[in-house]
Write a structure and sequence with these properties.
It contains seven helices and six strands. By secondary structure, the chain is an alpha/beta fold. It has a six-stranded parallel β-sheet, sandwiched between helices. α2 crosses α5 and α5 crosses α6. It is globular, with a radius of gyration of 16 Å. It starts with 10 loop residues before the first helix and ends with a helix.
C-alpha cells in the first residue's frame, strides 16, 4: 500500500523575515534586493510599487512554464498598462539530459525577448541564493502545474513562508489549503485564459 506524502521545506533556510520586523517591512527590503539583482543582470530599472509576479522552478512540461504566454497580445496589454504596471520574473533550470526541458527554457526566453523585453525578464543561473531572493521579493508567486502531476510544490511553500501570495492551480500542497482571502486559484483546464482573467479581474485591482 502506498500512502501519499507531501514534502516540506527547511524553514530556517527559506525564512527571510528577520525577527522584530513587520512582514511588510521585510518584504519591501527583500523586494528592493531583488530589483537590484534584476538591474545588475538585465539593466532594467523597475520600481518598488510595480507588481512583481514570479515563476521559478525546475523546467519540465507538466509545470507549464509557457502558460502565461498563451494569449500573448492580451498579456502585453495587461503588463504595459501605465496606471497598473506588472512585471514578470522567470527563472529555472532543466536537467542536463532533458532536451525537452531545455527547449522549453529557450522558448520562455524567446517569448520574453520577442514580446515583453522591458516588462519581463528571465534570470539564468537559478541558484539557491536567487531562489531565496525570488521567493521573498516577488509580490505574487505563479504556480501552473497540470493537476495530478505536482508532488509537492516547494517553491510555493518558500514564497508563502515569506508573505508572497500564491496564484496557482490546485495541486501538490495547495490541494490541502483553503486559499480564500490569501491567494488565487487558477482553472487547470483553461490555464492560459485563467491566469490573465485572475490578474486582470482580481490581483491587479
Amino acid at each position: 500500500k502506498v500512502e501519499s506524502v507531501t514534502n516540506g521545506i527547511h524553514l530556517a533556510t527559506w525564512d527571510h523575515i528577520p525577527k522584530n520586523t513587520t512582514l511588510l517591512a521585510a518584504h519591501t527590503e527583500n523586494k528592493r534586493k531583488l530589483l537590484e539583482v534584476i538591474k545588475k543582470q538585465t539593466g532594467l530599472e523597475w520600481q518598488e510599487n510595480e507588481l512583481l509576479i514570479g515563476w521559478a522552478r525546475r523546467i519540465v512540461r507538466y509545470k507549464r512554464p509557457l502558460a502565461i504566454f498563451g494569449e500573448i497580445e492580451r498579456l502585453m496589454d495587461l503588463v504595459e498598462a501605465e496606471n497598473r504596471p506588472i512585471r514578470l520574473i522567470m527563472s529555472g533550470f532543466a536537467h542536463q539530459r532533458d532536451s525537452e526541458g531545455k527547449a522549453l527554457m529557450q522558448a520562455v526566453q524567446s517569448m520574453i525577448e520577442k514580446h515583453v523585453p522591458t516588462t519581463a525578464v528571465y534570470l539564468p543561473e537559478y541558484t539557491m541564493e536567487l531562489a531565496g531572493l525570488l521567493t521573498s521579493g516577488c509580490d505574487v508567486w505563479l504556480n501552473t502545474p497540470a493537476v495530478g502531476f505536482e508532488a509537492c510544490g516547494t517553491s510555493g511553500m518558500k514564497a508563502c513562508l515569506n508573505g508572497v501570495l500564491p496564484c496557482t492551480t490546485r495541486d501538490g500542497w495547495i490541494a490541502e489549503v483553503d486559499l480564500t482571502g490569501i491567494g488565487w486559484l487558477l482553472n487547470n483546464e483553461a490555464i492560459h485564459d485563467s491566469i490573465l482573467d485572475v490578474l486582470e479581474e482580481e490581483i491587479v485591482p
